[in-house]
Design a protein that fits this description.
The complex is a heterotrimer of chains A (about 750), B (about 160) and C (about 80). By secondary structure, chain A is of the alpha+beta class. Helices cover about 25% and strands about 25% of the residues of chain A. Chain A folds into 3 domains: about 40-135 and about 210-260 and about 265-295, Alpha-Beta Complex (Aldehyde Oxidoreductase, domain 3), CATH 3.90.1170; about 305-455 and about 600-750, 2-Layer Sandwich (Aldehyde Oxidoreductase, domain 4); about 455-600, Aldehyde oxidase/xanthine dehydrogenase, molybdopterin binding domain (Aldehyde Oxidoreductase, domain 4, 2-Layer Sandwich), CATH 3.30.365.10. In chain A, the strands form 6 sheets. A 7-stranded mixed sheet of chain A has the order 3-5-1-12-9-10-11, sandwiched between helices. In chain A, helix 10 (about 335-340) runs parallel beside helix 11 (about 375-390), helix 11 runs parallel beside helix 18 and helix 14 (about 485-495) packs parallel to helix 15 (about 525-550). The longest helix of chain A has 28 residues, at about 525-550. Chain B has 2 domains: about 5-80, Beta-grasp domain (Ubiquitin-like (UB roll)); about 90-155, Orthogonal Bundle (DNA polymerase, domain 1). Helices cover about 35% and strands about 15% of the residues of chain B. In chain B, strands 2-1-5-3-4 form a 5-stranded mixed sheet, with helices on both faces. Chain B starts with a strand and ends with a helix. By secondary structure, chain C is α+β, with helices and mostly antiparallel strands. Chain C has one domain (about 1-75): Beta-grasp domain (Ubiquitin-like (UB roll)), CATH 3.10.20. In chain C, strand 3 (about 50-55) and strand 4 form a beta hairpin. Chain C is globular. The chains are: A alpha+beta (about 750), B alpha+beta (about 160), C alpha+beta (about 80).
């Protein structure tokens, strides 16, 4: 583990205790989205479109309604027409994606939902809902969607970001542009120029837990919802919008969440459970099956990306030109904006143009997926940079060091970087034994780097000191990968009491202040900062209570190692336990709240080194060893920082080698199962070596940057560059499946 | 629908339940018996989140019809700890941070138990192949494999 | 005067200018001043942008202070996963 700054002697931060929620998760007690059962609960089932693009002519629910056990059948007409009500266009899209009104825009788009006494009755009733469609021509890729005569998904879509605004509608929702310097001059100064075009396919977040929600509506219009999501406050807001009710009428409780990776920041089921529950006056449970998860949730964009870059002989990048088109799926909102800002953000480049297009097509609406938008752009840019390094006979790490963004570099997206740790991740790779391990026959080594902003946003925390001197730390950030542990570690550090004396809790929407989603790598940073703030309020309060007890001025009291100490030692120390036991005498219970809109986000960088072996007979690529170096700022919980790093890498390896959405010509997904959508399994992989770099974020009390996302940015290029190193073919299409590698090898031989 | 009466031993206790013929053992365990430790990740036997031991064989409970369980002995994750004492695999998963979201953990624990019961000293490769029917999307498997190695070591020492 | 920078995508609203100097003490004041210079730009900036002030990115920056020498960048909104 590389540490770039002395650890300031923390007692708990940076240690590896057992996670607070671990016991329930290894004994089967933890309750995930689908585990809740309520008395009288009905089972729901959703009816989905079999067509990629069609007008709904009629929906006949009468047969379904008359079936045994069926208590409610709902369609789009059972929800308010937000467009007609003048709602914000993004809210209209959320509602129309939850349940279609006039048109279905992708195979799997919801058209109706039923609730019945048993699962089997619900399934039978769903099949009995008769929907008549007028099938419309569809578009599946950016190429098809951007063609001049392409059928339109949204008749009113005028491209944003183009001046003057186009008069004709199209499937291009928006254009983004970043430019600096003089491209022509930059390429003129180059000694080597490489231009390549890349394509990537939609891939799914692949969380193992399908979406699930239980809703229990009361006759006063209020409803309780239990669901598995990355943000129950966000689910409350979306559900209220789609139902046309006040968020205050909904109480949302976060179930344990079985993975999300961005895909559970959006809403699918909750309104479809609440409405039938209102009709039936009974709780309704909706759980997707895996087929539905693939056809109708996630994925992230398929893309086409063109990159042209030039370097001088000394390895300086003189110019970069990037063109990219990202599939948004059925509604505007691909992550092309972030792609445009991240594509070349690792490097200090004087001349560039980055142009991007957000393109709708007849596939499921894309959802956030770990550093949304960045991985595809990095695959293209980092592959071209690898080729440039080869052309000027420079090591892959060294060309990156020669151009690396440092503190003060003006990022391609505008502002100057504060203190960042990109160079340190490059050096950590160079310093690791993997960098010099000898390669065998048909083996190759690849390097790639990645950048992600990380996010801040809003968080709240409440800390209660219990009468025995333990503390409860309450937040509203669902714990998706061990964040309860990082909350407890920071609270233990602040309060000076043992980690085991802290109970971290994820509370419902009525029990703690607002929290934005668990996303953007933000929880340890922002919710952690709220926990730290609340703990510091507690410590101030405890000092005041000790001063009162001793009848001294506040400045005579320090808080050290979990106890109040008189600065001159004039009084025996008062422990948290002592003060808590007698809190009634000093002002009542000890608790504090803190809420914030986080500032001081610290950018994340990751550099990765991948060794592969390519079988020239079969085209199969095997990962031989893999090293990831990432700037965590400060690893509050090193176990789970490594977990994020390793998990991000392996998702990236899946994206690189196997994973893709395959649609037939009618727009029907052909591989909606884990068997056919092949994610990496244990036997595909080696251990994933980690080097945690710690360049503290100066704006966070413990230097945290956020670690969840950037790890998925480099792997596709790292694998592709390693394949090139092994067998001398440049892969420009994802996934780099055996068939494609073999084709490339055969083409190379000819 | 007629329901069939099933008698099994689950986690050491004789257990009876009623089920329809087409119900999966997974749904029967979760809905009829109230054991929700086994999870449905796919319903097609591809993810292993529903893994349990049926007569000591690791089984995807989503692929088995509930009536087929009549007369069998079943172990689920809820029965893995011995009256509150964690199984070494559970302890090593905790100490080794071998779970992030935790949804796949019950399945991995059961598949790993089945492996170590048969092969107390597996190589890394043997562990990786024995667990290849269990999907984890969070961890990249690294810490899971290490936890199983650690548990094997500990169990051999006893 | 704070230095305000526009991404290329925003320059259609600023008569092609990449950078202007604005006298304001908060982001809100800055947006008001910009809207007087380039009518219509205010709505677009308040609705669709995050703001970087001296390298630090804010999502709801309306009341954030800007100082005499601040460097302010209006950025596209992006979402985390």
């Amino acid at each position: 583990m590389a540490v770039t700054e002395e650890n300031p002697g923390y007692k708990w931060v940076g240690t590896r205790p057992i996670r607070p929620d671990g016991l329930e998760k290894v004994t089967g007690k933890a309750r995930f989205g689908a585990d809740l059962v309520l008395p009288g609960m009905l089972y729901g089932k959703v009816v989905r479109s079999p067509h990629a693009h069609a007008r709904i002519l009629s929906i006949d629910t009468s047969a379904a309604e008359s079936m045994e056990g069926v208590k409610a059948v709902i369609t789009g007409d059972d929800f308010p027409d937000l467009a007609a009500n003048g709602a914000h266009p993004s809210d209209v899209d959320v509602a129309n994606n939850t349940i279609a009104r006039d048109k279905v825009l992708y195979e799997g788009h919801v058209v109706a939902a039923v609730a019945a006494i048993t699962r089997e009755q619900a399934e039978a009733a769903a099949k009995a809902v008769e929907v008549t469609y007028e099938v419309l021509p569809h578009v599946l890729t950016v190429d098809e969607a951007m063609a001049d005569d392409a059928p339109l998904l949204h008749e009113g879509m005028i491209t944003k970001g183009v001046d003057p605004a186009p008069e004709e509608p199209s499937n291009i929702a928006s254009k983004i542009l970043h430019e600096r310097g003089d491209l022509e001059q930059g390429f003129g100064e180059a000694d080597a120029v490489v231009e390549r075009e890349f394509t990537t396919k939609p891939v799914h977040q692949g969380y193992i837990e399908p979406h699930a929600a239980v809703a229990d509506s009361n006759s006063d219009g209020r409803a309780n919802i239990w669901c598995s999501s990355q943000g129950h406050f966000q689910m409350r807001a979306y559900t209220a919008t789609v139902l046309g009710v006040s968020p205050g009428t909904l109480k949302v409780t976060a179930a344990e969440i079985g993975g999300g990776f961005g895909g559970k920041t959006v809403i699918y089921l909750e309104p479809l459970a609440v409405r039938p529950s209102q009709r039936a006056g009974r709780p309704v449970k909706l759980v997707m099956d895996r087929d539905e998860v693939f056809r109708a949730t996630g994925p992230t964009s398929g893309t086409r990306i063109k990159v042209k870059m030039g370097v001088s002989k000394d390895g300086k990048i003189t110019a970069a030109e990037v063109w990219m088109a990202y599939e948004a799926g059925a509604f505007a909102g691909s992550p092309v904006g972030a792609a445009g800002m991240t594509a070349i953000a690792c490097y200090d480049i004087p001349n560039f143009v980055v142009e991007g297009y957000d393109v709708v097509c007849n596939k499921p609406r894309v959802a956030a997926y770990r550093a949304p938008g960045a991985p595809m752009a990095a695959f293209a840019v980092e592959s071209v940079l690898d080729e440039l390094a080869r052309n000027i006979e420079m090591y892959a790490i060294d060309i990156r060091l020669a151009n690396a963004a440092v503190e003060g570099t003006q990022a391609a997206y505008g502002p100057k970087f504060p203190r960042i740790g990109f160079v340190e991740t490059l050096e950590a790779i160079k310093d690791h034994p993997n960098y010099t391990t000898e390669l065998g026959p048909n083996q190759g080594r690849g390097v790639a780097a990645g950048f992600w902003f990380n996010a801040g946003m809003m968080s709240s925390a409440t800390v209660h000191v219990n009468e025995n001197g333990t503390a409860t730390v309450v937040t509203g950030s669902p714990d998706i990968g061990g964040s309860r542990q990082s909350m407890a570690l920071m609270a233990a550090e602040e309060l000076g009491i043992p980690y085991e004396s802290i109970k971290p809790v994820v509370a419902d929407t009525e029990t703690v202040g607002f929290n934005d989603v668990t996303g953007g790598s933000r929880v340890t940073l922002a919710t952690g900062a709220a926990v730290v703030d609340a703990c510091r309020l507690i410590v101030e309060d405890l000092r005041a209570r000790a001063a009162k007890t001793w009848d001294v001025e506040l400045d005579q009291v320090e808080w050290v190692d979990g106890q109040a100490q008189h600065v001159e030692g004039a009084q025996p120390p008062l422990s948290l336990n002592d003060l808590a036991a007698k809190s009634g005498r000093t002002g009542g219970p000890i608790s504090a709240n803190a809420s914030l809109n986080s500032r001081g986000v610290g950018a994340g960088f990751s550099t990765q080194l991948c060794d592969v072996e390519v079988d020239p007979e079969t085209g199969v690529t095997r990962i031989v060893r893999y090293l990831t170096a990432q700037d965590a700022g400060r690893a509050i919980s090193p176990d789970y920082v490594e977990g994020q790093m390793q998990g991000g890498v392996v998702q990236g390896i899946g994206w690189a080698l196997n994973e893709e959405y395959i649609h037939d010509t009618e727009g029907v997904m052909e591989n909606p199962s884990f068997l056919d959508y092949r994610m990496p399994v244990a036997s595909d992989l080696p251990m994933i070596d980690c080097s945690i770099v710690e360049v503290p974020n100066p704006a966070h009390p413990y230097g945290v940057r956020g670690v969840g996302e950037v790890g998925i940015v480099p792997p596709m290029a790292a694998v592709g560059n390693a394949i090139h190193d092994a067998v001398n073919v440049r892969m420009t299409e994802l996934p780099m499946s055996p068939v494609k590698v073999l084709e490339a090898l055969n083409a190379h031989d000819e | 629908m007629p329901r069939t009466h099933i008698t099994t031993v689950i986690n050491g206790d004789e257990t009876e339940f009623l089920t329809e013929d087409g119900t999966s053992l997974l749904n029967a365990l979760r809905d009829e018996v109230g054991l929700t430790g086994a999870k449905e990740g796919c319903g097609t036997g591809d993810c292993g989140a529903c893994s349990i031991l049926v007569d000591d064989r690791v089984t995807c409970s989503c692929l088995m019809f509930a009536p087929e369980a009549d007369g069998t002995t079943i172990l689920t994750v809820e029965g893995l700890a011995d009256s509150g004492d964690l199984h070494p695999l559970q302890q090593c998963f905790l100490e080794g941070a071998a779970l992030q979201c935790g949804i796949c953990t019950p399945g991995f624990l059961m598949a790993a138990k089945a492996l170590l019961d048969k092969n107390p000293d597996p190589t890394e490769t043997e562990i990786r192949y024995a667990l290849a029917g269990n999907l984890c999307r969070c961890t990249g498997y690294d810490k899971i494999i290490r936890a199983v190695q650690e548990a094997a070591l500990e169990m051999r020492g006893k | 005067m704070a230095q305000v920078h526009f991404s290329a995508g925003l320059r259609e609203l600023t008569e092609g200018l990449a950078q202007v100097e604005v006298d304001a003490s908060t982001v809100r004041g800055l947006i008001t001043a910009l809207d007087e210079m380039f009518p219509g730009v205010g709505d677009r900036l308040s609705e669709a942008s995050s703001v970087a002030i001296d390298g630090e990115i804010f999502t709801d920056a309306e009341y954030e202070p800007v100082s005499e020498n601040s460097e302010v960048h209006f950025l596209d909104i992006f979402q985390g996963g």
